[in-house]
Design goal:
This protein is α/β, with parallel strands linked by helices. The protein has helices at about 40-55, 60-75, 80-90, 95-115, 150-165, 180-190, 205-215, 225-240, 260-275, 295-305, 325-340, 375, 395-400, 415-425, 460-465, and strands spanning about 5, 10, 20-25, 30-35, 120-125, 130-135, 140-145, 165-170, 195-200, 220-225, 245, 250-255, 285-290, 310, 345, 350, 365, 385-390, 410, 430-435, 455, 465-475. The strands form six sheets. It has a seven-stranded mixed sheet, with helices on both faces. The protein has a six-stranded mixed sheet with strand order 9-8-7-10-11-21, sandwiched between helices. A three-stranded antiparallel sheet has the order 5-6-22. A hairpin with a 2-residue loop joins strand 5 and strand 6.
């Protein structure tokens, strides 16, 4: 049984109630975590506040950087262990789980180096007044983390917050707590003071809501669904607490007739099957120049048919979905497609040895999806790629922008002028041209527009979000 992690100690939840942890590969429970309540959030927020006032506020940026660097090394040293935990807890194929653990190490490394590069400015004052700005931490930051990339999202959110001098209270998803509880232990061993990093597990509507309402939380970073993002923002608005929201997308891959299809096809496939399509930046729509529509669909179809799905430990192209309700959600979308007569081009295959009790879904390619259909509008969060043709550049841009989301777009064309035009005209936080996420390391700011959210995490930009600006004017004349 796992406990909460508060002030560098394993602490049982106040309610004494537990949540079963299910292995998505076989649907069986194998561990339990605390079903915490607002009492536990209160305890964690107090521990964080105490640490902030007594210690962390007075810890220099260089020292915070050294601690983060030690934690980065510890995570890298424990990458296999963390990957094994993540594989069982989230159903991630081995290589993907290990990549997540190494990405976490890299986040801490990046923010370790960034700590003492966060400067204010000197502003023009008057002859007898000097004016400058300081970047100060918010204080105690709350982090609500989803289940799809616990290690990575923890890294980009908590890494930036600690670097900027905040103390953190983290609420992982009830479906994916285990790796983060282990990372918190590693942080304590690396020398982070008691209270700098606290983890409280439990259900979103209970303990997540308590975190969003808590008066001792000075900033909230949330990654998850738009519905819950709205709730968090409403809660935070009641006490004017700033929030960063990352709420997913319906990201288009736009393929022009002059594109290098040898480069595009594997990238388009990977962008929808990575983590079984449960990725905020999944390229879930492919918009194809009508001149090459059938040709590209043939190639994508062949690639889909070769894909294999199975238990995470088999390390195939795809593992299972996170839970039964997510599997049902994908099935509902696919049955809607059938009712609407949307043609299925190709599907991968779930291997015969996959347990029937696991939450598997074969990757599926659909064509001629009407742009206004919910399959083309809503985030499915499963390995379902929706194809549709476009006539010309204006039509492609109109389709790309025709959802409530604006997270990522991929553009595939050799025409340099068109690359720039599309990058300008697409409403999204990120536009990738002739790649999809290449170079999209921890250094690059990441976030959305429209219903994909607001604020930026990753990169140096995150440090601005995790600080507040104080302007100081000193009259000395
Ligand atoms: P969710 O938004 O319900 O959960 C995300 C986090 O918010 C979890 O930690 C959860 O416990 C917490 N939460 C839930 N209700 C809460 C509340 N009332 N107050 C405070 N915290 C709360 O997401 P989900 O149910 O796990 O997945 C549903 C859909 O959300 C998915 O199908 C997908 O479309 C989307 N999603 C997006 C991302 C992303 O990276 N943008 C990640 C996960 C899920």
């Amino acid at each position: 049984m796992q406990h909460n992690f508060i002030a560098n100690a394993a602490v049982p939840g106040a309610s004494g109630r537990l949540i079963d942890v299910i292995d998505p590969s076989d649907g069986q429970p194998f561990e339990q975590v605390q079903r915490s309540t607002e009492h536990d959030i209160d305890q964690a927020a107090s521990a964080a506040r105490q640490c902030l006032e007594a210690l962390w506020r007075h810890t220099g940026a260089q020292e915070r950087g050294r601690l983060l660097m030690r934690l980065s090394a510890a995570v890298a040293d424990h990458a296999d262990e963390l990957a094994a935990i993540e594989q069982r807890d989230c159903g991630k194929p081995t290589r993907q789980a290990r990549a997540d653990a190494l990405a976490l190490a890299r986040y801490f490394e990046f923010y370790a180096g960034a700590c003492d590069k966060l400067h204010g400015q000197t502003l023009p004052g008057t002859q007898d007044t000097s004016v400058f700005t300081w970047r100060e931490p918010h204080g105690v930051t709350g982090h609500i983390i989803p289940w799809n990339y616990p290690l990575q999202i923890f890294g980009r959110s908590v890494g930036g917050a600690l670097a900027a001098g905040n103390c953190c209270v983290v609420k992982p998803s009830e479906d994916a707590c285990l790796s983060l509880l282990r990372v918190a232990q590693l942080a304590a061993e690396a020398g982070f003071p008691a209270g700098a990093l606290n983890i409280v597990t439990g259900y979103g509507h209970e303990v997540g809501d308590a975190l969003a309402r808590h008066p001792g939380i000075d900033h909230i970073s949330f990654t998850g669904s738009p519905r819950v993002g709205t709730l968090i923002q409403q809660r935070a608005a009641e006490r004017h607490c700033p929030v960063t929201l990352e709420l997913g997308g319906k990201s288009p891959q736009i393929v022009f007739a002059d594109a290098d299809l040898d480069a595009a096809v594997p990238a388009i496939v990977n962008a929808i099957i990575q983590n079984a399509g449960q990725t905020c930046s999944a390229g879930s729509r492919v918009l194809i120049d009508e001149l090459i529509y059938d040709k590209l669909l043939d190639r994508l179809g062949a690639a889909f048919e070769a894909l294999r799905v199975g238990p995470a430990a088999m390390d195939l192209d795809l593992g299972p979905l996170i839970r039964a309700s997510q599997q049902q959600r994908v099935w509902d979308f696919l049955s809607d497609a059938q009712v609407a007569g949307i043609p299925l081009v190709a599907q991968g295959r779930v291997v015969d040895s996959a347990p029937e009790t696991g939450f598997y879904q074969a990757p599926t390619l659909l064509r001629d999806v009407p742009p206004e259909h919910r399959l083309a509008q809503e985030e499915i969060f499963g390995p379902v790629l929706c194809a549709m043709p476009f006539r010309d550049e204006d039509h492609a841009v109109a389709l790309a922008n025709a959802t409530r989301y604006g997270l990522v777009a991929g553009v595939w064309t050799r025409d340099g002028a068109r690359q720039f035009r599309l990058a300008r005209r697409i409403r999204a936080g990120q536009v990738f041209v002739n790649n999809y996420g290449a170079g999209g390391g921890v250094e690059l700011p990441f976030g959305g527009v429209k219903s994909s959210g607001h604020g930026r995490e990753k990169g140096f930009e995150a440090l601005y979000g995790f600080t507040t600006l104080k302007t100081v004017a000193i009259r000395h004349g």
